[in-house]
Specification:
single chain, alpha+beta, Transferase Creatine Kinase, Chain A, domain 1, Creatine Kinase, Chain A, domain 2, 2 domains, two-stranded antiparallel ribbon, 13 helices, creatine kinase activity
């Protein structure tokens, strides 16, 4: 049974959310009927509806407002997760099945800005969860430490361009920390959305960061997801960035089993990252389009692109630099997600030129 204190919190939070002017997907789909059906349910990890929605109940300015405390939550609380997933991932219905992994032909991608006029930098990242472990809110301190050991020993086996060093956050010297912050590598302790979702317990135990010698390949351990694999470099050569990520994921996958779901693809803490989990993005300057934000948004929407401020979600564009990425991560392959971004950015540059 879900205990009385949890139910009380749920009821109070639900009332407040209903009365708020929140635009979150949580508010849109958490009807009285769905709420009543789910409020007494639990996963085998003892996760309740409150564990899923506490971030959205606390932060009415959330865009989504829900996280999965463990992989099972996607099934147990599917009456709420499914419509949110369908809304966010452009019509991925509860009857749909995410296609098998396919990185496609890397050779068909190109440098989206060969003259280096618009694109400042390019990055492609994906998230992975380690099989047999729940997500952040349910992990014990011992599990965090154990996962970090597995990750750091696995990464120490990477060779060639991917060879590098793992830095645990715990016991990190101020100098190393500052260096990594200056390189824009180091993630800070969770933002308020993650804090409210209980994703930052036992910090900094089990958290760390790996990077190769050229600083073009990074792995974050236990930030939001168990693993975030990131490939990046200056300029617009998406082909190089993507190829590096594909090599890395294929290599790491041989050594660490990842959580995969028949219908939802690769499993992640936040439902917006499910499926391919791939987010391909550029930092790009489009001064003319930026002056006409409606036009920028219109072209972006046509290619299922998401326009954010320079430092990502909930930020402004600094010096006219936008972060533009693919929005859809489900119902299409990894290659298709990146190709969508590739074609959309080329189109944006073409329009910018014409203007």
């Amino acid at each position: 049974m879900v205990d009385a204190a949890v139910l009380e919190k749920l009821e109070a939070g639900f009332k407040k959310l209903q009365a708020s002017d929140s635009k979150s997907l949580l508010k849109k789909y958490l009807t009285q009927e769905v709420f009543d059906a789910l409020k007494t349910k639990k996963t085998t990890f003892n996760s309740t509806l409150l564990d899923c929605i506490q971030s959205g109940l606390e932060n009415h300015d959330s865009g989504v407002g829900i996280y999965a405390p463990d992989a099972e939550a996607y099934s147990v609380f599917s009456d709420l997760f499914d419509p949110i997933i369908e809304d966010y991932h452009a019509g991925f219905k509860k009857t749909d099945k995410h296609p098998p992994k396919n990185w496609g032909d890397v050779e068909t991608l190109s440098d989206v800005d060969p003259t280096n006029e618009y694109v400042v930098s390019t990055r492609v990242r994906c998230g992975r969860s380690m099989e047999g472990y729940p997500f952040n809110p349910c992990l014990t301190e011992a599990q965090y430490a154990e996962m970090q050991d597995k990750v750091s020993s696995t990464l120490s086996g990477l060779e060639g361009e991917l060879k590098g060093t793992y830095y645990p956050l715990k016991g990190m010297t101020k100098e190393v920390q500052q260096k990594l912050i200056d390189d824009h590598f180091l993630f800070k302790e969770g933002d308020r959305f993650l804090q409210a979702a209980n994703a930052c317990r036992f910090w900094p135990t089990g958290r760390g960061i790996y990077h190769n010698e050229n600083k073009t390949f990074l792995v974050w351990c236990n930030e939001e997801d168990h693993l975030r694999l990131i490939s990046m470099q200056m300029g617009g050569n998406l082909k190089e960035v993507y190829a590096r990520l594909v090599n890395a994921v294929n290599d790491i996958e041989k050594r660490i089993p990842f959580s995969h779901h028949d219908r939802l693809g690769f499993l992640t803490f936040c439902p917006t990252n499910l499926g391919t989990t791939v987010r391909a993005s550029v930092h790009i300057k489009l001064p003319k389009l930026a002056a006409n934000k409606a036009k920028l948004e219109e072209v972006a929407a046509k290619y299922s692109l998401q326009v954010r401020g320079t430092r990502g979600e909930h930020t402004e564009a600094e010096g006219g630099v936008y972060d533009i990425s693919n929005k859809r991560r489900m119902g299409l392959t990894e290659y298709d997600a990146v190709k969508e971004m590739h074609d959309g950015i080329k189109e944006l540059i073409k329009i910018e030129r014409e203007m």
